[in-house]
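Lab channel / #folding
Pinned by the channel admin:
"Please post every new chain as: sequence first, then the structure tokens as a reply. Keep commentary short and put observations after the output so the thread stays searchable."

First post following the new format, from NK:
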Amino acid sequence: MKSLTKYDTDLFYRLYKLTQKRDCRSIIWLSKTGDGYLYFFIGMLLWAFEPEHGELFLYTALMAYALELPIYVLLKKLFKRPRPCDFLMNLTAHVTPSDKFSLPSGHTAAAWLMACIIAHFYPPFAVVAYIWAALIGLSRVLLGVHYPSDVVAGTLLGMTIASLSISILG
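Reply from TO:
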């Protein structure tokens, strides 16, 4: 019987192989939309120009990120899981990771956090937000910096913190 780690590594290789010897600029661009600048921009635009929910959206998102970031850092330090590009043989990531460890995926956590808050305040945009968050997670695997389980952990972290923040403020 295969271990969970083996399945995770096998799935990683299957996905990563799709990007070998290919131009990854579009995947890199997609991944960069999860760097955090876009979230701030969306929050500020809604705060400034959307009087019904904009201010509460911004405060909910700020509180959520203030909760998520220290938990994310704590989990990285606790698990200390090496990134696939640093651990697996004959593999080079398509981007330089921002830190040394892979679990959980911070880009994925932040994307799902934002997607859940968008879905709560602006339900017509829920499907687009969720698809975008899922693509952010997939991009991190395709770029060689996260295992699929890192993305699942990031998704759970983002959704949990978003739900908590919405229950407090939203």
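NK: The CA atoms of residues 13 and 144 lie 9 Å apart.
TO: also worth noting, The mean pLDDT is 92.
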